[in-house]
Amino acid sequence: MTAVVLACCAVGAVTIGATLTLGPRRFTLSRANVPAIATEEYGKRLLAETTELLGPHNPDPKMHYSGSGLTCGSCHLGTGMEPGTLGLLQASERYPRFSPRTAGMTDIEDRVNECLQRSMNGRALPVDSPEMAAMASYIRSLGDRNAAMGASLRKAKEPPAFKTPDRAADLKAGKQVFSDQCAKCHGADGAGLLATANPIHGYVFPPVWGPESFNDGAGMHRVLTAARFIKARMPLGKADLTNDEAFDVAAFINSQPRPHMANLDRDFPDRTAKPIDTGYGPYADSFPIEQHQFGPFAPIEAYYKKLKKSKSPGKKG
Ligand code: HEC
Ligand code: HEC
User: Fold this and answer.
1) What are 222-254's pLDDT values in tens digits?
2) 202 lines ligand 2 (CB under 6 A)
3) Is the CB of residue 139 below 6 angstroms from any atom belonging to ligand 1?
4) Is 203 helix (H, G, I), strand (E, B) or coil?
5) Beta strands 104-106 and 193-194: pairing type?
6) Contact of 241 with 174, CB cutoff 8 Å
7) pLDDT, tens digit (0-9, with 9 covering 90-100), for 86-133
8) Residue 153: which of 79, 87, 224, 235 has the closest Cα?
9) pTM for the predicted model, two decimal places
10) Under CATH, what is the fold of the domain 2-157?
């Protein structure tokens, strides 16, 4: 009995009341059906061992939610506990919120599902599954950790920001950066290094392109998002690239083959809200697709700044 009670109260750390509110669909789990395994601890394991638990090589096909060899922690370093780029310490403060990509309200659960479908090239978990409840509960618990750390300590630990060079990315230079600084871990073919001969154990160094990497609808497939991450985090343990190197190598990685996501043209129903480095159309401007993929971005930025100004009432003239 004690084990059940403990499991219940680990979830209950979010709300120990009779109900637990999850997601924008606001359904309630009564104490009786809070999944006993949906603990923060299980949530953390799901972020760290995503390949084993939810990956394409899990012996139970029903558990194939990720279609890649990545873990959540491959991008959200330290299972989201590292301050700064792609850290999840502040995620719980940011939801629920409006998502221009889906033109609807999103909560943590929806955002996790977007990463599952895009960053992990998989499919959405049911919002009321123990796995989703556990991950959401873990991510919400990071908010308490963040509060305990305090904003100034978190800021002090954040890596330096990326500044976009005012030019198009140079794929040839990016290829050189990759072979000099990245290939020793991620492999010359970008396919990463498996932990053991059995792919269920996942990767020691995750694939940065190819069939087991993120798909072309992922945030990491946007060159500025990738450059920000790479500048802040890579090469792992060093993170000493210049803005130019991070920009070029991000473009090189994202020019390589990877899984394709269907129906990307339906993203961002309001096209003026589409991030300027989204690598697929349609767009609300007439810049060529290559410019959205690789820059230069300053002219696109200037175009949307002007458009916004002309649209916002009271700022005319
Ligand atoms: C290939 C890299 C990658 C992988 C793998 C990945 N994510 Fe993400 N994730 C991102 C990017 C990029 C964003 C967008 C960050 C932004 O908007 O600034 C994001 C955003 C999020 C957010 C919202 C953060 C915020 O503060 O708004 C959550 C929560 C999240 N991811 C959870 C997960 C979980 C859970 C998994 C595993 C099931 C996962 N992610 C796998 C790249 C990844
Ligand atoms: C010392 C080994 C090492 C080096 C060198 C290295 N990485 Fe990584 N990289 C990793 C590991 C390990 C992860 C996953 C993070 C984790 O598990 O903590 C990762 C994650 C990534 C990811 C996100 C996950 C994915 O697979 O898409 C990208 C993108 C990435 N690295 C790009 C680069 C680039 C670009 C360079 C060269 C500038 C580089 N890395 C150099 C070890 C390395």
Assistant:
1) 999 999 999 999 999 999 999 999 999 999 999
2) no
3) yes
4) strand
5) unpaired
6) no
7) 999 999 999 999 999 999 999 999 999 999 999 999 999 999 999 999
8) 87
9) 0.90
10) Cytochrome Bc1 Complex; Chain D, domain 2 (1.10.760)
Q: Ligand 2 within 6 A of 213 CB? A: yes
Closest-lying ligand to the alpha carbon of 247?
A: 2
Tokens 């961002």, residue located:
268
Q: Is 206 in the pocket of ligand 2 (CB under 6 A)?
A: yes
Ligand 1 contact via 228 beta carbon (within 6 Å): no
Residues in the chain, how many? 317
Full DSSP string of 99-150: ETTTTEEE-HHHHHHHIIIIITS--PPPTTSHHHHHHHHHHHHHHHHHHHH-
Phi, psi of 181 (to 5 degrees): -120, -15
CATH 1.10.760.10 spans which residues of the chain?
Answer: 2-157, 160-317
Ligand 1 pocket residue status of 79, Cβ below 6 Å: no
Identify which ligand lies nearest to the alpha carbon of 208.
Answer: 2
Residue nearest ligand 1's atom 10 by CA? 219
Q: What phi and psi values does residue 244 have, to the nearest 5 degrees?
A: -65, -45
CATH number of 160-317: 1.10.760.10
Q: How many angstroms does the Cα of residue 262 sit away from the middle of ligand 2?
A: 26
pLDDT of residue 313: 65
By the 8 A CB rule, do 131 and 54 touch? yes
